[in-house]
Fold these 2 entries.
Entry 1:
Amino acid sequence: MSDPVRAALLRKLDTDAEPAIAFLQGFLQSRSANPPGDTTQAADHITDFLTESGAPWRIAAAHPHLPNILGSFEGSRPGRHLVLNGHIDVFPPIDDTGWSGERRDGMLFGRGASDMKAGTAAGIITYAWLHAIRDQLAGRLTLTAVSDEQTGGKWGTKFLFDMHRDEVLGDCCLNGEPSGLNNVRFMEKGTRRYIITVLAPGGHGGYPHLSRNPNKIMAAITAELDAKLHMRPANLPSNVAGYLTTPAAVATLEAGMGPGAAEVVRRMTFNPGVIHGGLKVNQIPHACVMEIDIRIPVGIDYDRVHDEVAAICRAHDAGFELVEAHSYPGSMADPDGEMMHIIQDNAEAATGARPVPMSSLGGSDSRYWRWANIPAYLYGPSPVSMGRIDERVTEREYLAVLRVHLLSAYDYLTRS
Ligand SMILES: [Zn+2]
């Protein structure tokens, strides 16, 4: 274990901790709310840093206000291709204090501190610092810092896959989305979202013999969708189910995401998020519109869910309309994969505790790699404050994430 290059990287993490924190602080102060989705200020902050570091980069953008930063370099000998991925855009802040980047009590505050400017910064610094020692590496390292993740990724990672697939696919992907230091995310659910409309002639509330009531029909549809879909268990591969049900995994998951999370992770869920129907209490509505969000884990037939939803609607109303909104299938990497173990080893060395393999509850761009059978893993700071007015990251957490990304990328690019 006496690798002098690796030892020098560990020393650099100590000596350059302040510049690394300053980079994140400046990143937090750079506006990149999406919507509306103008990330040029934050992208400039990144490209200034990369230029100063001497690491190569270029912009690959579908729209000028949504620049994706794409950079890549070769090591000194053939090897594997690792891709670092993170998003620049963040949820809109509650007010302008979201761009303060305030540093207080060992923490950095600001929109995106958790989701995911700390993780993206870790990837950017990893890329720049490893570029400086590229003679010591095998293979290739690519950075993808994208400007559209919060609204689905169409102009971000998906755009890079559509336009520059060979450059960004790689052999493995590492992402710093918030996870918490005690777990590594290797899978996530898919989603199917629909807008269901039930129409009727409508009329006077005292004349129910003249029109069906769309609100009643929608209530029956809702009850049946809930009974048939909500909390249906997934048929997970046995090694995956095993990882998600160990006492350590259950405890970690529920400590981070609340009691019940360990069950939810392994089951399909149904959420009727919006229902609109009717104009006045004594009127029969002419329409009821409902928007639903179904979260589908790996191990449940994604295509069949669509047929089931349509069949349930049809059973209650022959004339229903069903429009599918933002939808995509779940994704998974090997919970026993090489990069999982590399991350676990480095995290254990950094924090003193070995992180457990875990499923995400939300979505991330890692799915684009996993759908292409490229293993992708998430390791980042605590997700607890994401999107909140006091969104923050502790300096300790951020530096641990940076250390794990830097050393994991180094290990991956030197072990082949
Ligand atoms: Zn995110």
Entry 2:
Amino acid sequence: MPRTQFVAAPPTGSELRQISGPATNWISQLRRQRRDPHGAAQEDENTYGPVHVLNMFGSRWIIAAGPDAAQQVLMNRDRVFANGPAWKPLNGPFFDRGLLMLDFDEHKAHRAIMQQAFGRSALNSYLEALHTIVERHIAELPEGSVAEGNPVLMHKRLEQLTLDVALEVFMGARLPRAEADRISGAIMALLHAGGAMVRISLPGSRWRKGLRARRTLEVFLAERITAARDQQGADLLSVLCHATGEDGERFTDEDVVNHMVFLLAAAHDTTTGTLANIVYNLAKYPDWQKRARARSLDMPHELGYDELADLTELDWIFKETTRLCTPIQIEPRVAVRDTEICGYFVPEGSMVIVPALANHHRPEIWSHPEEFDPERFSDDRAEHKRHRMAWAPFGGGPHKCLGQHFAGLEIKMVLHQLLRSFEWEVPQDYIMPLDMSATPLPEDSLPVTLRRRG
Ligand code: HEM
């Protein structure tokens, strides 16, 4: 049993409890969590209570475990938990002034404008371009076999598709291949930089490449804004250039650049990681692949907004995959003044963590939480309705993911077409190795046997 550490005591006379936790150093803590993430989370909660403290990455994290604590922190009714100072140490300077980094009144005003780019009519306007890209990429997929030594690396393929969505649907840019590769490369460098271990700008470092990538994207976006302001196109950049708040306020050019840089990053690994995970799950559970395919074959090739929602089995599979392998594993916040979470005293300046991934594995909510069981989301079972924050891969409250519906449309459209055109499998003993350092992504690019359907 490790020694116990304590967070500051509540003020005298207060009935709030004092937060405690294991005094384990953060490297041992990280090892322990990598070995058995859910076992470690459960053990800490059993020993120290749902709100406890852990040493992580050289600082102290207050873990607000369970759906009640998640609701209190993410809903943030007392406006006491801030995003900017919490995400910045994790993400670095690469997404400065992106929507997720803004707080309180400023965040509310920017979100009100940006919401127009994610409303139903805007989403409908992206569908045509989205469909064209997905159709092109699915048509270009080769056949391949793991046994014959020429597997198809599905994650790589899905990444190329998502990067084209970023260029064409987000920025309205149909570019020559070399220029498309330069901009896609900048998006990828930006994503890799935030998770770098060496967090200063040394020559050749991921950090320096990230700073250069941000500059490349800033210049590219700034050049496109002039044209986008003159003419309303059907891409996200164009919509942001013309969107207005309740009192007619608009984003400046600088705002549009900052928001676009963040959106490109927010959309990428989350979407490709989820797609790769679904492809993997459907290979591991061929009965579910058959069930999802049967529904897709019953529907037209090109689906509209409402029809995509009718892919019932795919919807459960999407939900179950993001439950088991949550793309954003934690939601960090900083307490801007003394406060409380579920009766525990939280001093000003504390880093508070909502453990989204661990919350998706709680046995009091999910039956056999480690099992892949998409039907738990059916109307009959509806395990996700046992608590408002039971299933929350897109977060909750004022910072809830704005791209949730966009992500759902893209993911379902890709899988619908993939299921109609291909069958795929992995060897029986294959377990996809995941890099969990940020958004979980397959370390081996997910090699599968892929056959075109006759
Ligand atoms: C499976 C895919 C995705 C997942 C699981 C996901 C998850 C999340 C989560 C958990 C947050 C909240 C983080 C927090 O509260 O600290 C968030 C915020 C956000 N996401 Fe997503 N996301 C996905 C895809 C997308 C896409 C495709 C876009 C854009 C097209 C997007 C745009 C945003 C934006 C703008 C925010 C910030 C909202 C705000 O601060 O008000 N996301 N996302």
